[in-house]
């Protein structure tokens, strides 16, 4: 990963469904809490890796449905496809490795002789992954039968059962664990091995992640029976693996704290009026807090009072400016008043804001420029035209010694997925008083 010049402070390798993403929480609270924590405290010097069973098609679908961050590395199709960065550049070296001793046609041919195997959708059939649905009661027996059949054809395969229903056939050298081991090798060659790695999962295809040496691991509280059983049989005495008491992303946050991997208080868990601690200070943290305050104001989750507006004003440099996407420059403090009009305008509408790829750059001894992407969603479906969302974008968190000096917004034309994203820049400086 070229974004970081040195070793990542923390690398999180997380499964998505029922681990990072809680499909039983329509509010996506733990995911939003994790996002805020990651962007305020880890993004700048750490790596976020998503490792999912989903194909690229279903992965992109999930990103349309849930408030997710952009990972640095995306591992899809149960460790058979690795891509880097926002543009998802594929790792061809990995493909070469997987091609060895693999013949997809033979797998399909042999599997078609087993009537109990029900083929998954076309999107989930990938160059190095053939996937079926199998009844829980027959999983073990069928796995055995299949591996015997494929061994006779001299194929080196791996059969993985997950979620009490999915059966994947992959090359032996593939899988989430092998893909992670491959990444570790790459980092090592570059002299950038992560200082700490935390793997997170809930089901059978995640088990391999926990057997990679040196990693910390968290099985979220809602982990599937097959993963817990694997753990009981293979890793019971490994003190670096925990079964969290919290569900999904809540379990990941819990593990960060329990293993002492770094701060684990999400800015979403800190009340607006709480005094901020010195350890919280930092430009990324300010940007995250600002956007949470903005969301809460529009959701009417904070009290509608004059002092709130006054303190927001006080947090901006008197000469601070706001540069509208149209190019018009306004006084930041005056602009704060405009927020009064939008108090609670999104109340009860499922409105959420989350910031992504928050990257501060120090541009002088006391000033930072922070670039980030702001995502907004309204009730799962977005209908705001991008012009209307800009004009009030001028408040700032009041509990900090960092002051906003300039806010610059560039609207992204059109609507991406079902959310609006905007590229933003904050310029922040230390309070001279
Ligand atoms: C995801 C994939 C599916 C796979 C399952 C378990 O749900 O879409 O194809 O079988 O993960 O790995
Ligand atoms: Mg899962």
Beta fraction: 25-35%
Q: List the secondary-structure elements in sequence, H or E.
A: EHEHEEEHHEEHEEHEEHEHHHEEHEEHEE
Structural class call reads alpha/beta
The largest sheet is:
8 strands, mixed
The total of helices stands at 12
User: What general form does the structure show?
Assistant: elongated
Mean pLDDT: 86
Distinct ligands: alpha-D-glucopyranose, magnesium ion
- The end-to-end distance, rounded to whole angstroms, is 40 Å
Low-confidence stretches: 381-400, 412-420
- How much helix is in the residues? 25-40%
Quick structural summary:
Its EC number is 3.1.3.24. This protein has helices at 29-42, 56-65, 92-99, 104-111, 139-152, 176-189, 225-234, 248-258, 283-298, 306-314, 332-336, 386-390; strands at residues 10-14, 47-51, 73-76, 81-84, 89-90, 118-119, 130-133, 157-162, 166-171, 196-201, 216-219, 241-243, 316-323, 329-331, 351-364, 367-378, 402-411, 420-430.
Notes on the structure:
This protein is of the alpha/beta class. It contains twelve helices and 18 strands. It has helices at 29-42, 56-65, 92-99, 104-111, 139-152, 176-189, 225-234, 248-258, 283-298, 306-314, 332-336, 386-390, and strands at 10-14, 47-51, 73-76, 81-84, 89-90, 118-119, 130-133, 157-162, 166-171, 196-201, 216-219, 241-243, 316-323, 329-331, 351-364, 367-378, 402-411, 420-430. The strands form three sheets. Strands 5-4-3-2-1-10-11-12 form an eight-stranded mixed beta sheet, with helices on both faces. It is elongated, with a radius of gyration of 24 Å. The relative contact order is 0.12. Residues 381-400 and 412-420 have low confidence and may be disordered. Bound molecules: alpha-D-glucopyranose (GLC) and magnesium ion.
